[in-house]
Design brief:
Blueprint: H1 2-27, E1 33-34, E2 39-40, H2 49-54, H3 56-67, H4 72-86, E3 95-98, E4 101-104, H5 111-128, E5 133-139, H6 143-146, H7 157-167, E6 172-173, H8 198-208, E7 219-226, H9 229-234, E8 241-247, H10 249-252, E9 255-260, E10 265-269, E11 293-297, E12 305-311, H11 315-324, E13 328-334, E14 355-361, H12 362-365
Parallel strand pairs: 5-6, 5-14, 12-13, 12-14
Antiparallel strand pairs: 1-2, 3-4, 7-8, 9-10, 9-11, 11-13
Length: about 375
């Protein structure tokens, strides 16, 4: 009798838990965006006979329910911590943690992509940058410092650089591999920390032949907590970072404009916009995040020199420091992931004698299809 009662109670508790979650989910609004994962959540699919017959409706419903399940982030963290701390799994979705710093490993040398990148940078040189002072610099990802030394898959970074160097005729490399270290990057994110970039700034400015600012004399502004992209993707209980941005009297005298891709006009924005810190990508605090074209203008510059920075998101943190040196009258930021190279002359003429720096992280160079150059 007691055993039967216990069995019934077990079933009743199970049904109440499942039923409770089902009822709670009816009233739970997960929104449209996952802040922790930095992505759009699946929308409720449109009910059509064609999608029902093909099975797409049920597949989409499954995605929707998975994304909008109450307590989803808590369950993701529980699972990830169980895998790491109990089962001693070395990574979660190829993200691993060493001494509190997270990274996503990449094991295969992207030879084909690098060869295509070299071809595209050659087109950029020959069609759009004739007579310019040409430089390129590669920003190593965190795996360069963490992966191989801790038993995680890693490709040969020397071979990576050699493939690029062999095809970058006309460009001069400014080496960042020898001046960066793991402490220059956020622990929970892939990006570098602006406040730690004195050595990188010195190297770039020396290569370009301009004055480097003393970061210790700039004013630091700190925003926290900063949860980087690896925090959400790994679902691990990582300690948050702090996002620090640096200002100076030189930067205070500069203006920043961004190309509005709808009106095709430049609009004045902020070099640092703290409102972006509360958005889906807090790193967009720097230069409004990913934009096709932007321009920092210094009316009090010590010369009329111009720098054209072809860049990925890492350029958002370093460009203000290059401007803070005070030598460049204009620094143009161009992201050919968001604008075709052949459209650039419609907005600015890159002339003989201008400085051009191609500054890219190794992660971006692994995918040549991102570069709209032809």
């Amino acid at each position: 009798m007691f055993k039967k009662l216990r069995d019934w109670l077990t079933v009743a508790v199970f049904v109440l838990i499942i039923g409770g979650f089902a009822v709670a989910n009816l009233f739970y609004d997960a929104g449209t965006v996952s802040i922790s994962e930095r992505r759009q959540l699946a929308a409720f699919p449109e009910l059509k006979w064609e999608t029902i017959k093909s099975g797409k409706f049920m597949s989409s419903i499954e995605d929707y329910l998975s994304d909008h399940f109450i307590g989803r982030d808590d369950f993701r963290r529980l699972k990830a911590n169980f895998l790491f701390n109990v089962l001693q799994q070395k990574d979660n979705h190829e993200i691993y943690v060493v001494d509190g710093s997270a990274s996503e490993y990449s094991a295969t040398l992207p030879e084909a992509s690098l060869e295509q990148i070299v071809d595209k940078f050659g087109i950029l040189r020959d069609k759009y940058l004739v007579g310019c002072n040409l430089y390129y610099s590669i920003i190593p990802d965190k795996n360069y410092f963490l992966a191989e030394a801790n038993g995680y898959p890693a490709y040969d970074y020397d071979a990576f650089r050699d493939i690029l160097a062999a095809g970058m005729e006309g460009y001069t490399e400014i080496d960042l591999f020898s001046v960066l270290e793991i402490g220059d990057y956020y622990r929970t994110d892939l990006h570098w920390d602006q406040a730690q970039l004195q050595d990188a700034t010195d190297a770039l400015c020396a290569g370009l032949g301009v004055t480097a600012p003393d970061l210790s004399e700039m004013t630091a502004h700190t925003l926290d907590p900063f949860w980087g992209v690896y925090y959400g993707q790994s679902a691990l209980s990582l300690a948050p970072d702090k996002l620090t941005y640096l200002t100076s009297s030189v930067l205070d005298g500069c203006t920043y404009e961004v190309l509005n891709e709808k009106t095709l006009a430049f609009e004045e924005k902020q070099i640092y916009n703290e409102a972006q810190f509360g958005g889906i990508d807090p790193y967009s605090t720097f230069l409004e995040g990913p934009v096709a074209m932007g321009k920092i203008t210094n009316p009090n510059a010590s010369s009329d020199r111009r720098l054209f920075l072809f860049r990925d998101s890492f350029g958002s943190a370093i460009a203000p420091l290059l401007a803070a040196g005070g030598d460049y009258a204009e620094i143009w930021l161009i992201d050919v992931r968001y604008i075709y190279a052949q459209l650039i002359p419609q907005f600015v003429e890159i002339g003989a004698g201008d400085d051009v720096l191609l500054l890219y992280n190794t992660n971006i160079l692994e995918n040549s299809t991102l570069f709209n150059i032809k």
